[in-house]
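INTERNAL TRANSFER SHEET
From: sequence group
To: structure group
Subject: Flagellar motility protein MotE (MotC chaperone)

Please process the attached sequence and return the structure record in the designated field. Keep the field labels unchanged so the import script can parse them.
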Amino acid sequence: MKKKQANKRWQWFFLVILLPFAAALTLTFVVMYFLGMNIIDTGKSLASSVPFLEQWVDEDTATQDDEAKLQQLTALNSDQEKQIAELKASLETSEQTIASLEQDVMEARRAQEQRETVQQNEQDQAAETIKTFEAMSASKAAELFSEMDQEIVTGLLLQMKPDQRGAILTSMEPVDAAPIAESIAANLP
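Return from structure group:
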C-alpha cells in the first residue's frame, strides 16, 4: 500500500505541478517568439544568473567572443598584409627610380668630364696655336689672319699679349683689321 501511495504522490506531483509548469513555460516561449523577443538571449541572461549554469553560459559567450575577435584579427591581418604588399611595391618603385637617377647622374658626370677634356684639349691647342703665331713675325701672322675667319682671329688675338696683338693688327690691311679691332674691343673686359 505504501508503494501505491508513493506512486500516487509522484503522479499527483507530475500532473499537478510539473506538467502545468512545462505547458506554461512552452506557452510563454511561443508568445515571446511571436512578440519578436529574442528567446535565446533572454534564456542565456536568465541562465547566467543561476549559479551552476553560469559557467556554461559564460563559456559559450567566451567562445563567441573569441570567434568574433579571431575574425577581427584575421581581417586586420589581411588588411596589414595588403598594406605591406603595397609598401613593398612602393619601395621597389622607389629603388628603381633611385637606380635610374643614379645612372643619370653617372652619365651626366661622364658627359661633363668629356666636355671638360674636350675643352681642355681645345685650350691646349689654342695655346699651341697662339705660341706658333707669337713666334712668327707680325707681318706673316697678319697675312695668315687675313685669310682666316674673323671670329677665330678675334679669339686668338684676345689670348695674345697686347703688344703682339697691336703689332699684328698694324701689319694687317685696314679693311681687314678694322672689324677685328671692333670685335676685340667689344670682348675686352
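Handover comment: The mean pLDDT is 83. Residues 51-135 form the longest helix (85 residues).
Transfer complete.
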